[in-house]
Design brief:
Order of helices and strands of chain A: EEHEEEHHHH
Number of helices of chain B: 18
Strand order of the largest sheet of chain B: 3-5-1-12-9-10-11
Largest sheet of chain B: 7 strands, mixed
Shape of chain A: elongated
Radius of gyration of chain B: 28 Å
Distance between the termini of chain B: 74 Å
Helix content of chain A: 25-40%
Largest interface: A-B, 62 and 62 residues
Oligomer: heterodimer
Mean pLDDT of chain A: 93
Number of helices of chain A: 5
Number of strands of chain B: 29
Distance between the termini of chain A: 59 Å
Chain lengths: 168, 793
């Protein structure tokens, strides 16, 4: 039976930093962070593919760490710094080297899983230099994300290219 | 000449948007006042609905509407049967909402519309429903036995369809055979699982009486036509769009899924936009599945290993309903002869109902099963006759000078199964060379104590089937080219490849072309993107329409420049007299000139100051204004692509895990418009094939409950499970269409299970393990190995 609205279920205002901007919006305690980003903040680039933490489509950066936004409640993210795919491209609209690499290497087809891969790659390349990495190691690095279109080959190439251009 | 566009690996025009998170998938669409739907689904595989009470759900604050079967009126009847066939004597389609009986776990029973999805799901829990469970038929093996429960009380032995096709005299061929090999070959149930689930946004405009729907579908135009009929609306009052679609792979060509009726109906009743997005757990039990077949197949050979005849009897599981007719088993039946000369062939199939999710085509559409059966038996025959596995195939190939090759069967589209062109020996030879077939034995011998194996599989694929597609090509007064077609995209790169075709024909830079697909207001004829047909059928329509626009522009320019059209060339958006580049008009100017009413266009185009001196009406009779044309292309029959896959694997005998060490693909899809896109299609297909070979199994228990209904149990390969894929291409142009192309969408997925299982069996040959099923998941393989080891002890 559904309980009537109580203090515990009432929507509350969250303040957080998303893509470098301070935002405030309301969320019920049970609202997923992915739903909050997509439907309350209108940042629909973060996609939801499985809602059980396996596909990685909803990957974002939470205080610098890649997480699956479908496995977190919005209220848990109050006061945090979040980066979504919308925060990747440069101010002038030109593509981030990772985005450019995905374009150059045919690293996407339908594009649905792509934002998750971009964010996972972004987090990975911030921490590692993939310059000397084998393909095998790159594959392990992106093995938290499912893609049903590309067979991953273009994505692996894209991660390598991005590592090289970002090093320069 | 303009820069060469056809055949070049052009980077995709659609990518920047998608990379910036600016794609517009169905769930990204927000409309003012929008409400959200959720579906109550059956938890029983087979039951009578004893009581259904939605009053508490209706009373929950925030709930706007609850629909049950009783509320649907005429739209609650049986959904359409898409492709009837005389052999389908017992067709059954489901209703948008089950009325008194449910026939699979996941079947829709009620539809709730609320202020948001969270409340809608709360309301589902308030629906009171009681079932009387009925006996369940779940396993395909037992489905058509006399004593098996019936999925539909009025369908004897659960038999939906039965078909026999015969070529030559197979029994006589078997009577004179030197060798006969036979096996029971099984392929289990899997599913496409695009990363974007299904979804719809429906909006009703009460004043204009128009219905607008955004649907994650592969076929928006047929749905538009269907909704107009269903809701008694004039066709032009219904607009259906496939926006960005996050993968299709077959199941999204279905119509209707229940929600495609329920959301529009709710939107019309409430006069508010309604969104329904399938979640992944729903996807497992409400989006169509495929693959499940059991073959009893035998091949007769002469003493040299040449095929004398094939007899195949197979059982196909269609689940609880047959919405897509019998297309999948029909394709399997025509697929079995594959790349080989089979002079005598008898195929008989039975389509069975079971209390499981309905079946419609998934990438490969019946082909992986047919190829798996044939290629498994060729491996077995090679072993028994004492031939190399590649050699037995070589001896049986349809030869390059034997095209067109009539297999003698009726194809899925009702036309002949005629291979139009190909070079199968060359394709296999290249694949063997890439994988190192001849040197592998040494490698295998050196790897003592390890289970290393090599395998191969060939395939043909009938692609680019009809009935037809069309396209409009239009040059606007800024010289920009617009292409529109019904063949929507789910990631295949249509915005790029269709643009390449139009730009190449019209001599304009690629960035001057904008492609629109799958919007019923932009182009209202055609069917959609499935069956590896979009580029072949719609691409040729684009080419023909662009050619017609070119001819129109040439005639206009010829009149203005007082030359003949043959003296003109098209380059960089300008039409000029050959050898006299100054004597020219831009396509923009010609677009203006094509309209007798020019005053709206201002000073922009460079045009003659005076109208041309002429007599009679401004629009010459028979001429149309505008630089635009619509053309259609309807193929005579399928164009047959082909290929060979070869693999080297290592099996861990303790865990059953298979590591793919090397994977080679040689592929022939005729003329390639964009090799980058073709290779992407191949890679993706192989990845799905790897899943179907090694991991993905929809495992039902005997009560019809799905035991692998999450991504924790149904394992889609990550980058760590998919190998690096080496590719090469042979291009034998199709003589059937102007561009010489064949489809490439499904190819990668077709022979992968056959090639991998061939390699696995080779790896396990020291243990004498023979594999007759796909997938072979690690646990299954581990069990097979343990059994053999126990026997050996």
């Amino acid at each position: 039976m559904i309980e009537p609205k109580t203090r515990a279920t009432r929507a509350r205002t969250l303040h957080l930093n998303v893509n470098g901007k301070r935002v405030a919006a309301k969320a019920e305690p049970r609202m997923l962070l992915s739903d909050f980003l997509r439907h309350e903040l209108g940042l629909t680039g973060t996609h939801v593919g499985c809602e059980h933490g396996v596909c990685g489509c909803c990957t974002i950066l939470y205080n610098g760490v890649p997480i699956r936004s479908c496995l977190m409640l919005a209220v848990q993210a109050r006061g945090s710094r979040i980066v979504t795919v919308e925060g990747l491209a440069n101010e002038d609209g030109s593509l981030h080297p990772i985005q450019q690499a995905f374009l150059d290497c045919h690293g996407l087809q339908c594009g649905f899983c792509t934002p998750g891969f971009l964010m996972a790659t972004y987090a990975f390349l911030k921490e590692h230099s993939a310059l000397r990495m084998t393909d095998e190691e790159i594959r392990v690095a992106i093995a938290g994300n499912l893609c049903r279109c590309t067979g991953y080959q273009g994505i692996v190439r894209a991660v390598r290219q991005a590592a090289q251009t970002m090093k320069k | 000449m303009t820069t060469k566009l056809l055949g070049e690996p052009i980077k995709r025009l659609e990518d920047p948007r998608l990379l910036k998170g600016q794609g517009q998938f169905v769930d990204d669409i927000h409309r003012p006042g929008m409400l959200h739907g959720a579906v109550l689904r059956s938890q029983h595989a087979h039951a009578r609905i004893k009581r259904l009470d939605v009053s508490k759900a209706r009373g929950l604050p925030g709930v706007q509407l609850v629909l049950t079967a009783d509320d649907l009126g005429p739209a609650g009847g049986s959904l359409p049967l898409l492709i009837p066939h005389p052999a389908l004597t017992q067709p059954r389609t489901q209703r948008a909402l089950a009325d008194d009986e449910v026939r699979y776990v996941g079947e829709a029973v009620a539809f709730v519309v609320a202020r948001n999805r969270y409340i809608a799901e709360d309301a589902l829990e308030l629906i009171e429903i009681e079932y009387d469970p009925l006996p369940v038929v779940a396993a395909l093996d037992a489905a058509i036995r006399e004593d098996t429960p019936l999925a539909h009380a009025d369908v004897p032995r659960n038999i939906a369809a039965h078909l026999v096709q015969t070529v030559g005299d197979p029994d006589a061929a078997f009577a004179r055979a030197a060798y006969i090999v036979k096996d029971r070959i099984r392929m289990d149930r899997g599913a496409a699982h695009p990363m974007e689930t299904r979804g719809i946004v429906a909006e009703w405009d009460d004043a204009a009486e128009t219905l607008t729907c955004w649907i994650s579908t592969q076929g928006p135009i047929p749905i538009k036509n269907g909704l107009a009929m269903l809701f008694h609306l004039p066709e032009h009052k219904v607009r259906v769009m496939a926006p960005d679609v996050g993968g299709g792979f077959g199941p999204k060509i279905m119509m209707f899924y229940p929600e495609e009726i329920l959301a529009p109906m709710a939107a019309m009743r409430l006069n508010r936009p309604v969104k329904w997005i399938e979640d992944r757990i729903e996807h497992f039990i409400s989006t169509n599945h495929e693959r499940e077949q059991i073959h009893d197949i035998e091949i007769a050979f002469d003493k040299d290993g040449r095929i004398l005849g094939v007899r195949d009897t197979f059982l196909h599981d269609t689940g609880a309903f047959s919405p897509y007719g019998i297309i999948t088993p029909l394709i399997t039946a025509t697929q079995v002869p594959n790349n080989y000369k089979v002079p005598n062939y008898r195929v008989e199939f039975t389509v069975a109902y079971t209390n499981k999710v309905p079946v419609s085509p998934y990438r490969g559409a019946g082909r992986p099963h047919g190829v798996f059966a044939m290629e498994r038996l060729l491996d077995k025959a090679a072993h028994e006759i004492g031939l190399d596995r590649a050699e037995i195939r070589r001896r049986n190939f349809v030869q390059p000078d034997e095209f067109p090759h009539d297999v003698g069967l009726i194809f899925q589209d009702g036309g002949p199964t005629t291979y139009d062109s190909g070079n199968y020996p060359e394709v296999q030879a290249r694949a063997l060379n890439m994988i190192g077939w001849d040197s592998f034995k040494k490698q295998q011998a050196r790897a003592q104590g390890r289970y290393l194996g090599i395998g191969l599989a060939n395939y043909v694929e009938g692609t680019g089937i009809g009935p037809y597609e069309g396209a409009q090509v239009r040059v606007d007064v800024r010289g920009h080219v617009f292409v529109s077609t019904a063949a929507s995209t789910q990631g295949q790169g249509h915005y790029t490849t269709f643009a390449q075709i139009a730009a190449s024909e019209l001599g304009v830079p690629l960035e001057k072309v904008t492609v629109t697909t799958g919007d019923s207001t932009q182009f209202r004829w055609g069917s959609g993107t499935y069956a590896s047909r979009a580029l072949t059928v719609a691409g040729n329509a684009v080419g023909l329409a662009a050619r017609a626009v070119r001819e129109k522009a040439a005639q206009l320019a010829a009149d203005l420049l007082e030359v003949s059209p043959e003296e003109l060339e098209f380059e960089n958006g300008v039409v000029s007299v050959k050898g006299a580049p100054g004597r020219s008009y831009s396509l923009a100017a010609l677009a203006v000139a094509s309209n007798p009413i020019r005053y709206a266009y201002g000073e922009v185009p460079k045009l003659p100051a005076e109208p041309l001196p002429r007599q009679g009406p401004a629009l010459v009779p028979g001429k149309e204004p505008g630089l635009e044309a619509i053309r259609y292309y309807s193929p005579p029959h399928a164009a047959f692509a082909s290929g060979c896959h070869a693999a080297i694997v290592e099996v861990d005998a303790d865990t059953g895990m298979v590591k793919i060490l090397k994977y080679a693909v040689v592929h022939d899809c005729g003329v390639m418009v964009n090799p980058l896109v073709v290779e992407g299609q191949v890679y993706g297909g192989v990845a799905q094939g790897v899943g179907g070979a090694l991991y993905e199994k929809l495992d039902y228990d005997e009560e019809g409950q799905l035991r692998s209904g999450t991504y924790m149990d149904f394992l889609i390969p990550y980058a760590t499970e998919v190998p690096h894929i080496e590719t090469d291409h042979v291009e034998t142009p199709s003589p059937l269409n102007p561009l010489g192309i064949k489809g490439a969408g499904e190819a990668g997925a077709i022979p992968t299970p056959a090639a991998l299982v061939s390699a696995i069996e080779d790896a396990l040959s020291p243990l004498g393990i023979h594999i007759t099923q796909a997938p072979v998941k690690p646990d299954m393989l581990r069990e097979l190995i343990a059994e053999k080891r126990a026997q050996a002890r």
